[in-house]
Amino acid sequence: MKAIKKSLVRRTRSIAQVVARLTVASVVLLMLVLAYGAATPISRILVLNSDSSVAKYAEVEMAFKASIGGPTMNVDVSRVSEAQVRRTIASSNPEVVYCIGTSAYQMAAKATRTKPIIFSSAINWQRFPKRRRTHAIANELPAEMQLTLFRHFFPRTKRVGVIYDRNMNRQWFGEAQKAGKEVGIEVVGYSIRRASQVDDGFRKLASEVDAFWLIPDPVVLESQTSVQRYFDLAHAARKAVFTYSPAFTALNPALILAPDMPTIGRQAAGLAQDLDSAEDSYSPAGSEVILNLRRVQEYGLDFNRDSLDSVNQIIR
């Protein structure tokens, strides 16, 4: 019994240390954002939005422009051609181009090879071709932070299952497994090449894991039908789904850990004000937590009731 208590103490300390490291890093990053926002606004900023009618993109753009504090040139690339984007960049001669979403970044990268580009809210951005003077804000929270929060909200979670495309996310999966060891959660994977193999993944993992971790994998999420199938399989197995975007809210994941959109906009504005010292990539500086208490209770999951104060939205 003493050995068990010592093990639990060590594990608790390990989780606390991880939370402390993440908290310190977030505070430092937010301080940098605030410092940048206080700088003199630069002129000639071009904002390319993949689709301004998408709420999360609109939130990011609004926060970015508010933090810049000066005029910006704004283009919704869903309404213009690639040639028009190229002409806009050539005629306006921006000092920096801020791209919101994948389509905006892809157009900008083709339109100019010399202008600095900042981009955010892009899925699978790590797979984009390497380009000089490009600075990314990741579309998801770091794996270590997500796993720490999984453990925080659901202390009895010991194993989470991940179905992923080996070509796209093999490296990420290896890093997630290492991060899991830091917080006492085993990350169990099933690699696939085609969306049709997701069923095989559920058959293999459902009896081995406590929950499924849905990541932004383009093969798993190949279509709306594939997404619906994933959640149907999880529900049939009565396994909670932890995921990364409020876009899945209607499908009833138990927990959503997402970047906070306005904070990303402010973070991008900070980078635009200090491009000379900007790094190639950053994790999101803020997070949004959505807990589906209805699903948690339906499955009889044991969750940390003291954690509810740190939840942004509770679905009852």
Mean pLDDT metric = 89
Identify low-pLDDT runs: 1-40
Q: What topology, given as strand order, has the largest sheet?
A: 7-6-8-9-10-12-13
What structural class do you assign from the helix and strand content? alpha/beta
How would you name the CATH homologous superfamily of the largest domain? Response regulator
> Could you tell me the radius of gyration in angstroms?
21 Å
Major β-sheet profile: 7 strands, mixed
The second-level CATH architecture of the largest domain is 3-Layer(aba) Sandwich
Describe this structure in words.
There is one protein chain. This protein is α/β, with parallel strands linked by helices and 316 residues long. It has two domains: 33-140 and 260-286, Rossmann fold (3-Layer(aba) Sandwich), CATH 3.40.50; 143-259 and 288-315, Response regulator (Rossmann fold, 3-Layer(aba) Sandwich). It has ten helices and 13 strands. The protein has helices spanning 2-37, 55-68, 82-92, 102-111, 143-153, 166-183, 198-205, 224-236, 261-273, 293-299; strands at 45-49, 73-76, 96-100, 117-120, 134-137, 159-165, 186-192, 211-213, 240-243, 255-259, 281-282, 287-292, 313-315. The strands form two sheets. Strands 7-6-8-9-10-12-13 form a seven-stranded mixed sheet, sandwiched between helices. Strands 2-1-3-4-5-11 form a six-stranded parallel sheet, with helices on both faces. Helix 10 (293-299) links the parallel strand 12 and strand 13 (313-315). The chain is elongated, with a radius of gyration of 21 Å. The protein starts with a helix and ends with a strand.
